[in-house]
Amino acid sequence: MNPMIFINLPVADLDRAKAFYAAIGFTNDPKFTNDKAACMRLSDTIHVMLLTHDFWATFTDRRRVDARAEAQVLLAISRAGRAAVDEITEAAAHAGGTADPCPRQDYGFMYGRSFADPDGHIWEPMWMSAEAIAQGPEAMSHAG
């Protein structure tokens, strides 16, 4: 079995967050969804657990940051091509998120944008050419 990732995100409004993630292509897994949390699947191995603020607080004593004002992580996800990067970013904006809170990246062999969900969590959809991946770091030495 391939390793799976479950990204846990605190959300202010669970129903709004579920609708947002559904609008950008995630699917709800009702087996792991209730009035405190929702599991939204991007793929067989990538899941986002949306947790109400009160439920989030049961997992850690650390202070929950306001993702609209502070950033702790940037969640990068691969897309099949440049058009797919643009598509998910525009879908996020139409679903109540913010398109491009971070600068666009276009290095020819790699293209990326960003969006923030309604709670401010930043996602970075990106595409990289198969040739650049095969060549490794040498192909990317002129990036940035």
From TrEMBL:
Gene3D superfamilies: 2,3-Dihydroxybiphenyl 1,2-Dioxygenase, domain 1. Coiled coil: none annotated. It comes from the Bacteria. This is Lactoylglutathione lyase. SUPFAM superfamilies: Glyoxalase/Bleomycin resistance protein/Dihydroxybiphenyl dioxygenase (SSF54593). Keywords: Lyase. One of its GO terms (molecular function) is lyase activity. Residues 5-40 form the Glyoxalase/Bleomycin resistance-like N-terminal domain.
